[in-house]
Amino acid sequence: MAKTILIVDDSASIRQVVSIALKGAGYEVIEAKDGQDALSKLTGQRVHLIISDVNMPVMDGITFLKNVKTRPEYKFTPVIMLTTESAESKKAEGQAAGAKAWVVKPFQPPQMLAAVSKLVMP
């Protein structure tokens, strides 16, 4: 059975690039345009990994991550932050909130897929 990955990014083009790479590697993909949209799509189904942007309107990635970690069914779901943000303070904030990896845009799909395959839940 294919593993499901949630992509959260306000950029449709980034969601598309990530989605194509993941689907090509055999994953199921759920897309959300911001943290609020993503939370509304987490309805108890199994999600093996979340890839989230940091800077988004409505609800940013760090706030979204903190919300996800309060939900028992997603508490242990690994999260990769995919962002233009490279400041160490932001990375530290992301790690404190529970991010497992930090990939800076622009990224190479193989680099992202390598992080995904390491972190995706069994």
Automatic annotation (TrEMBL):
Annotated Response regulatory domain residues: 4-120
Keywords in alphabetical order: Phosphoprotein
4-aspartylphosphate carried by residues: D53
InterPro entries xrefs: Bact_response_regulator, CheY-like_superfamily, Sig_transdc_resp-reg_receiver
Organism domain of life: Bacteria
Cited SUPFAM superfamilies: CheY-like
CDD domains reported for this sequence: REC_CheY4-like (cd17562)
GO biological process annotation, one example: phosphorelay signal transduction system
Xref: Pfam families: Response_reg
Stated name of the protein: Response regulator
Organism: Hydrocarboniclastica marina
Lineage: Bacteria, Pseudomonadati, Pseudomonadota, Gammaproteobacteria, Alteromonadales
